[in-house]
Structure formats: structure tokens, C-alpha cells
Amino acid sequence: MAGRILLTGGAGYIGSHTYVELKSAGHDVVILDNFSNARHDVIDRLEVITDGPVTLHEGDVLDKAFLASVFAAHQFDAVIHFAAKKAVGESVEKPLDYFETNCTGFSNLLMAMRDGGVFRVVFSSTATVYGEPETLPFTEDHRLAPLSPYAQSKVVCETLLAQCKTADDRWAYGILRYFNPAGAHDSALIGEDPNDIPNNLMPYIAKVATGELPTLNVFGDDYDTPDGTGVRDYIHVVDLARGHVQSVAKLIGGNETHTLNLGTGIGYSVFDMLHAYERACGKKLPYRIAPRRAGDIDCFYADPTLANDWLGFEARRDLDDMCRTSWNWVSRRKNT
Ligand code: WQD
């Protein structure tokens, strides 16, 4: 069932890909973004991909009057909330900023929703809510033990949603816990575009491939994994975006609240990623073994069964597809 959906953070990496998938599923979509970590030309690119105008409200989730004006301008069926800060290391340096944007921003949004009579929301959460694995793969009932202010901020928001629903049963929500997003849109018009030196593996490898960075630092090769490097569950951003379309459809179709992992269930090491990227870009990429990064876990990956049961969600794109689309995006962007 198609609806009118507000996408906060819709110009960002996952938000922009979700915009495209929502439009192709027939939804009417409005983007809210403050462009703190996105470029304005993403909007033009979304217009090219979807062949139509983008409805945009530029502003901040910390601005309550702005939020009220957005809800006064449209009658939404649901909200998908991406607008948040997401760098684990930065959150350790700036816990107050993370609490303010991620927690206060979200509670402002929920208040604006309530005041506007909108009670369906899909929330961007993270596998980092689980912390150090007690058992693998991670199932949704694994205990939560956030290790950073970033992860803690997501747990606070998840808890707030549950409390809102206990207080008022009109709330219906989908909490989606992402594993490691990678790749870009097939059009090569949108993708991940970090301004600074990337923290995450895929965008870092991409910048080594384009020559913007000289060498990949492999953070530790003595982990308890098959090749000694860290293992993660990388999921194509377009698969992730499709998961949001399925989640919001579940809310619009029947108000069915859910908390789900979005991952593939497959773990790849840093070397697996590096070699897959080398295949995609057709050249050897330099790396060196560096010390372990503080706070890193050796290995984690999702049990994706529940998302499949609830939503019919299945990741369709493999590692080579993640690397190929990433390379198409970054090599084209560098030349434009
Ligand atoms: C992956 C592996 C590193 C960079 C991230 C986000 C977190 C959350 C989940 C959203 C690890 C190794 C990395 C590099 C390396 N996302 N690595 N050299 O740590 O799983 O967490 O995904 O909520 O926000 O931080 O992902 O991409 O940083 O690291 O060797 O230059 O690559 O040690 O084993 P991580 P990552």
C-alpha cells in the first residue's frame, strides 16, 4: 500500500538510496535534511534517477518550530528517521553532541509526529547495540551492551519507542538494526561520500583505489578469525534501502511493530573486502598491517531469519556487487 512518507536525513547515504526505492514502490516521499553530512547536489541526482522533482524541507530535527511546520504542510502516513550522527569514534569525543542530535532530535520528531497525528515510524538502529557478542550470529534477542555513546544513543531511542507504545498503543514502529552498509546505486549517481578521511573500511578502500589515500591500514591481523583480520556482515545499501520499504509497508498495511536485523548473515574479513575491491577496480591496492583499533570486536554478523519471516527481506546483492557499484560511483565522482 503506497503512502506519503517523511524521510529525515533523506539526502544522506542510506536515506538517498531509500528515497529511490520508495519512489519506485509508488510512495509519495518528502525529504527533511540539514545537509550537515550530505551535499545539496544529491537532490539533483535523486531528481535524475527518479525522473521527477524532490520535495525538500531543509532544516534541523533540533528545531521544533521547523518540525511543526513540516507536519503542518503534509499529512504523512509514516516517517523513516535517518537524521543522526553516526561516527563511533567521534561520539566518544563528543557524547553531548551525540545525545543532543540522536536522542533529543528523535524525541522532538516523535513529539511533532504525535502533534501531527502520525504514529508510524521506521527507526535507523545499528548492530553496535549488541556490543561484544555472547553468541553468534546476533539474533534480535541478544542482550544489548552498547560500547560507545553512539551505540548508547541508539539504545536510548529504541527504548523510547517501546515506552511510547506502552503509553499509547497508536504507535507502531520498525526498528532496523543495520550491519555494515556498503556499495552504491547502479546509476553511480549516489553513494557514500565522506568529507573527511573515512572511518569505515569500504569508503577507505575506495579512496585507496582512487588514489586519494595512499595505503589501507589493516587494523590488526591477529584476531581469532580465519585470516586474522576483523570479520563483519557487509550488506549492499540498495538491499538495506529495500528493507526500509518493506518495513514501512508493514506499518502502513497493519501497524505491525517489529525490531529486526538487516544483514546478510555472511561474514567477510578485511582481506576478503580488499581482494574483492581489487577485482572490481582491476588493480592491486597497497595495504599495511597496523595496530588494532581501540574498541574493535574480532567478528560479528547477523542472523537475518526474523527479517525474512516478518518482511520477506532477503539480501540479493553479493560482495562483488558491493565493490563494483562502489568503484563505479567513486571513480565517476572523481572525474566529475
Ligand atoms: C570494519 C572492519 C576494522 C577501517 C561500523 C560503524 C558503526 C556501525 C557498524 C552504523 C573492522 C577494519 C576498518 C580501516 C580496517 N554502523 N578496518 N581499516 O567497526 O564494524 O563499525 O559499522 O551504525 O557505526 O563504525 O565497521 O567499517 O569501521 O570496520 O582494517 O581503515 O574493518 O578494524 O575489522 P565497524 P568499520
UniProtKB/TrEMBL annotation:
CC terms in the record's Gene Ontology section: cytosol
UniProt-listed InterPro entries: NAD(P)-bd_dom (IPR016040), NAD(P)-bd_dom_sf (IPR036291), UDP_G4E (IPR005886)
Pathway in which this enzyme or protein is active: Carbohydrate metabolism; galactose metabolism
Cofactors: NAD(+)
Annotated catalysed reactions: UDP-alpha-D-glucose = UDP-alpha-D-galactose
Example GO molecular function: UDP-glucose 4-epimerase activity
Claim: Ligase is one of the keywords in the record: no
Record's keyword terms, sorted: Carbohydrate metabolism, Isomerase, NAD
Residues annotated as domain NAD(P)-binding: 6-324
Gene3D superfamilies registered for this protein in UniProt: NAD(P)-binding Rossmann-like Domain (3.40.50.720), UDP-galactose 4-epimerase, domain 1 (3.90.25.10)
Keyword flag NAD: yes
GO process terms (BP): galactose metabolic process
Pfam families found in the cross-reference section: GDP_Man_Dehyd
EC numbers, comma separated: 5.1.3.2
Family per record: Belongs to the NAD(P)-dependent epimerase/dehydratase family.
Assembly and interaction partners: Homodimer.
Protein name: UDP-glucose 4-epimerase
Protein species of origin: Maritimibacter fusiformis
Encoding gene, per UniProt annotation: galE
